[in-house]
Amino acid sequence: MVENIKAYELAKQQREISISEFFLKNRHLLGFDNPTRALMMVVKEAVDNALDACTEIKVLPQIKIELQEINENRFNVIVEDNGPGIIKQQIPNIFGKLLYGSKFHTLKQNRGQQGIGISAAVLYSQLTTGKATKIYSRISPKKAAHYFELQIDTKKNEPNILIDKEVKWDKENGTKIEIEIEGRYLKGKQSVDEYVKETAIVNPHATFIYITPEKEKFVYKNVTEELPHDAKEIKPHPYGIELGQLMKMLQDTRANTLQGFLQGDFSRIGQQTAHEICSKAKIKADEKPKKLDHKQSEALFKSLQETKIMAPPSDCLSQITAELLEKGLRKEINADFYATVSRSPQVYRGMPFIVEVGIAYGGELEKESQIRLMRLANRVPLLYQQGACAITESVSETSWKSYGLQQSGSNLPTGPAVVLVHIASVWVPFTNEAKEAIAHYDEIIKEIKLALQECGRKLSIYIHKHIKAAEQREKIGLFEKYIPELANSLSNLTNYKKEILQERLQKLLKKELPNLEAENGAEK
Amino acid sequence: MAQKNKSAESLKELGNKIIKDIEKNKNPNIEVPIRALSNVIFNEKTRTLELGNKKSIRHFFNVAHAKKFLQTIEIASISKNLLIEGKHASLRDVFYMAKRTIPGTNVNLVDDQSESDDIVEDLELISGNSREQLNVNANKNGSVVGRVTIEDSGDIIHWDKLGSGGWSIPSNVEEIKFKKVDAKYIIYMEKAAVWERLNEDKFWNKQNCILVSSQGQTTRGIRRLLQRLYEEFKLPIYVLCDYDVYGAYIYSVLKYGSINLAHASEHMAIPSVRYLGITAQDIEKYDLKKHLIKLNEKDIARIKQVSEYSWFKDNKAWQQQFKMMKQMNAKAEIQALSARGITFISQTYLPEKIKNKDFID
User: Fold this and answer.
1) Is A187 an 8 Å CB contact of chain B?
2) Which of A268, A443, B58, B106: CA 20 to 30 A from B288?
3) In Å, how far is A472's CA from the nearest CA of chain B?
4) How does the average pLDDT of chain B come out, rounded?
5) How far is the C-alpha of A413 from the C-alpha of A230, rounded, in Å?
6) Is the predicted pLDDT of residue A521 greater than 50, yes or no?
7) Domain locations in chain A?
8) What whole-number distance in Å separates Cα of residue A415 and Cα of residue A406?
């Protein structure tokens, strides 16, 4: 009896927790674990949204980022874009509700994926400063701009609107967000400065105006008028789904027959393949999808995995292209040599992806330190968790010595170089929700390595031509110094007079000099 | 004494040849037989590796060769002095004797011991003397235990009375005399840890055999010792390695000779050795599937390379092993057997394999 009563008591304490409450307590999962990183995350979430919005309406993005220092530990982050704006009714949901968005349910290459981003920033602001987030948005010059101040009701995961009014705004269309947060501004590899710079490199069509807390103004002008080609939404590929997901799809489908379901809800399944899948699973093609029991679902799942199905279409991916990636690198990194590679699409677990690699070498880059590795996914810089990322592993495991860089063991190579690796996919597999490190899929690592090798070969040709020629000249100069050594060793070996040998070798050097300059150094 | 003079003379000859070139106002050169796969021939008759006739010519006045040329003459002169003084030096000593920065440059005559080791091997070929005849020794490496008594430099040594460490095999075993050898066969293993396990279990005493191990590489001293035991006492030799491509290569070096020292196969190769394990079949039979290690890219590339060596190419049994490695995408260490119990290897695995003559040739 006693146990039963206890259970009742326990039951009273057990209740549902809202997603907002959960993230309130686990903010590190979203990348808001320290003030420096939090500042970067807020900028990142706002800029990601701004860029995606501009891409939707096919305008060249012009994005203004301003960091205002309130005091050492508190900043006002302002991000303004020339995108389509947001209709009034949607503003509170987008900014004031976690896991609200259009992106989560589709397979489409986007900067953000889960619809947590910007609302998490709002939540973080509210948590650390108690302030409301300010949003301006205007959808057309014919309509008035809307101004909101809002917070998040964490119990209900609903927006809490404090101010909602029409205002004057000189912008014709676009969105502007002002978030006050606790943060810290530092320079270096993991700073907002670096984030903006890398973002400018991989978005060569976008213009960024960035004002630092020190009121320094940087303008990153676009170097192309060409917009990235539109990434299409795709349906899931059979090789990429799990049993549970398949069962849910069977329940949710609008199709009345299994065949209709297979053809309509997956990519790359045609009539013939659908029939093959059904017969392998021993289920009738005209069976109602909702009627499949667990055993049949499992048979269907097995049959889907075992049937040969074409790789998913790749027009759903939007690569930077080798040409534009080079332009991006050239405008932001002062080097002597640039090489870029954009590979053809590949597939991991039914998800198409593309790897692009760029290398900048020489010039003003630091000679003696490790290369600067820039990791990007769907055009978003990844600044944290470098050690946990599949890109880092791939770069370290590539043998750079043969491409002219120094490398000890399986570490990042050393030399005056920037290596940039970009992965575009409808679903980038991150190791966790902070989305800073890419998971270690063999297919992805293999493809990154191939891209690095392709780019490395170009680098090696350059280094050998330019650097090795200088080394060659230096080496010829060494013969003067080698001669006394040889004379000495030979004299030790044979008791022949050292001075005579030295004299004769000096004469020989004069005779051989033209040959030395002409030779290419191959052992015959 | 005579051998020492002969060796010193042959080195001096090399020097005189170069001086002749210089006197003729000719770019001095040294001919060096190529020690690489491209110049290694598998002799079907003797079933050992032999060096072919390809040679490379090292010129002094050549940007790419100059340093190696210098190293060759310098190390020849070091070896000559050792011979004249009647002293022996280790490969490490030779490295330090040659190592210095060339005045007026930031170039070291040798940067790394591997460079001087390589030149010593070249000099063996150039001068026609073995490393031992050049008075250069390697580090001793490897242990042996068994019911054997030997005489070494006047000392009588009983291999079965040396406790947990066994007798450490010196780099030069030419002068050793075997006084008593009481064993039916020899097991050579690549892992010192496995040797220690078997020695602790007194496997050699129970099974009446000799156990030999190295620490990774099979040195010349070990190979020579094994060859002498085989030739003088006709003891069968079984090889116990990890189930991976490196294990296969270790086996092939013992059996046929190595690419790097193909010129010395005659004194070291033992064509009758047999491979005991670990094999793909062992993994099945002894249920080791859960204790495999996944292959990495290097392993896979190496399998391709080794399986194409001419001495493996037509060997069906080995091709099957390589195929299985790729199929399983895995390798297994000898120590995986410990998963079946710490004494499993000595009480079950080895006795069964040997009794059933479960070998690969």
Assistant:
1) no
2) A443
3) 7
4) 91
5) 36
6) no
7) 19-220, 238-306, 322-452, 464-518
8) 6
Strands (E), A139-255: 145-153, 158-167, 174-182, 207-211, 217-220
Where are any strands of DSSP class E within B214-273? 237-240
Q: Given a cut of 80, is residue A13 above it in pLDDT?
A: no
Q: Which of A175, A160, A230 minimizes the C-alpha distance to A48?
A: A175
Backbone angles phi, psi at A180, to 5 degrees: -100, 125
Separation CA A442–CA A452 (nearest Å): 15
**Chain A contact present for B107, CB below 8 A:** yes
CATH number 2.30.30.240 given to A322-452? no
Mutating which of B18, B25, B38, B62 best tests the A interface, going by the most A Cβ atoms within 10 A?
B62
Q: What is the pLDDT of residues A389-408, one digit of tens each?
A: 999 999 999 999 989 898 88
Contact across the interface for A485 and B70, Cβ inside 8 Å: yes
* Minimal Cβ distance to B63: which of A486, A508, A519: A519
Instruction: Give A513's contacts (C-beta < 8 A, 6+ positions apart).
Output: A476
Is residue B37 one of the residues assigned to a domain?
Answer: no
Regarding whether B192 and B104 lie in a shared domain, the answer is: no
Name which of A231, A198, A265 is nearest A422 in CA terms.
Answer: A198
The CATH superfamily label for domain A19-220 reads Histidine kinase-like ATPase, C-terminal domain (3.30.565.10)
The CATH code belonging to domain A238-306 is 1.10.8.50
For B88, half-sphere exposure in the C-beta direction (CA atoms, 13 angstrom radius) is: 11
Number of compact structural domains in chain B: 2
Distance CA B80, CA B88 (A): 11
- Please check whether residues B178 and B107 belong to one and the same domain: no
